[in-house]
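hey
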């Protein structure tokens, strides 16, 4: 565990490490040079070595407050790439870079990222893989379908691979070049009028609770649970995740057949899009199971089922 503290001295904020057996030549290199993407180091009689973090935010604080956009992800990756090249020029081993969201700092506009060096035997290069996976999985801000695809593909890649700059860049590039509008297609509709039968079966209940009739809702669309019309999913924000857990931005369904991350529902070009997240018991549109990790648009009157929980699109 890295022991550190942040102090204020002469109206500046500094980071210092309580224990750090850093070789003298590495200290000299940091003090005498401005190594690209490494925090500027200063000698101090009392604290030995201080790193100036004035006007900087930790990566964690930045992402908790603002979220990580695709631009932030790319800047982070470019910074790590440049960092590795710069420390190689100074003969510093990559394993001594601290990949900790609390000990990586960015300027307020996130134009530049700064790292620290810490000499410890159990430092591990795989910490970069863990950190990047954590950032993408927890902080990546979703604006639309492209971001969803990028996040899912990166996390899928990192399940079996360590972080590799070129591979991650290719994942982002390939998805960025896809024309998403062509992928949002509904599955084949059945000919028999089973939707009408389902609507008629619940027509009385729908009339009694007219907060979500079969018409557009102001501010977005709505999915109404067919078994209990008081349960509704209002699609008036960018994204919902269907889950059996009660978490932020998730719609909780108390049903063991629903996965912990079952499916996503979001708006894309004013269309309601359903995206199965690889659920075990499946997502269905009008009785037909949709492909995993593939977007499908739905219309008013369509029946969307998450496992055996049926909803009608209003």
């Amino acid at each position: 565990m890295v022991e550190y503290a942040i102090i204020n001295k002469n109206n500046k904020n500094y980071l210092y490490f309580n224990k750090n057996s850093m070789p003298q030549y590495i200290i000299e290199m940091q003090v005498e040079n401005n190594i690209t993407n490494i925090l500027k180091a200063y000698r101090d009689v009392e604290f030995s070595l201080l790193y100036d973090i004035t006007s900087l935010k930790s990566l964690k604080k930045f992402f908790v407050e603002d979220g990580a956009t695709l631009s932030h992800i790319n800047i982070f990756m470019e910074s790590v790439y440049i960092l590795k090249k710069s420390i190689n020029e100074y003969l510093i081993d990559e394993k001594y870079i601290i990949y900790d969201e609390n000990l990586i700092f960015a300027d307020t506009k996130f134009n530049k990222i700064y790292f620290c060096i810490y000499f410890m035997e159990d430092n591990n290069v795989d910490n970069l893989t863990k950190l990047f996976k954590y950032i993408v999985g927890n902080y990546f801000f979703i604006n639309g379908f492209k971001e969803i695809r990028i996040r899912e593909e990166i996390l899928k890649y990192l399940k079996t691979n360590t972080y590799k700059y070129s591979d991650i860049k290719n994942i982002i590039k390939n998805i960025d070049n896809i024309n998403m509008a062509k992928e949002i297609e509904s599955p084949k509709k059945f000919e028999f009028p089973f939707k009408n039968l389902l609507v008629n079966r619940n027509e009385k209940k729908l009339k009694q609770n007219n907060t979500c009739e079969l018409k557009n809702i102001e501010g977005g669309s709505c999915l109404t649970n067919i078994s209990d019309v008081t349960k509704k999913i209002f699609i008036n924000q960018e994204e919902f995740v269907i889950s059996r857990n009660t978490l932020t931005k998730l719609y909780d369904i108390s049903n063991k057949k629903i996965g912990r991350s079952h499916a996503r529902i979001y708006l894309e070009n004013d269309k309601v899009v359903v995206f199965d997240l690889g659920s075990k018991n499946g997502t269905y549109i009008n009785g037909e199971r949709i492909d995993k990790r593939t977007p499908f648009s739905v219309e008013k009157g369509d029946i969307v089922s998450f496992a055996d929980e049926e909803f009608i699109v209003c």
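Residues 11 and 113 are 22 Å apart (CA to CA). Residues 183-313 form a domain with the Tumour Suppressor Smad4 fold (CATH 2.60.200.20).
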